[in-house]
Amino acid sequence: MEQVTLNEHLLAEQRSHAESTEELTELINRIALCGKIIAQRLRRSTLTGDTGYAATSNVYGERQEKLDVFANAVFLRHLRYGGIVSIAASEEMEEPKVFSPDGEGHYSVSFDPIDGSQNLDVNGTLGTIFGIRRRRGAQEHDHGLLTSGREQVAAGYLLYGPATELVVAVGGEVTIFTLDDAGEFFRSKDRVRLPERGRPYAVNEGNQARWSEETRKYVQWLKTPDPKTGEPHATRYSASLVGDFHRILQQGGIYLYPAEPGDPKTPNGKLRVLYECHPLAMVAEMAGGRASTGSGDVLDVVPEDAHARCPLALGSKEEVDRYEEFVRSSAS
Ligand code: F6P
Ligand code: MN
Question: Taking the model in full, what pTM does it have?
Answer without folding.
Answer: 0.96
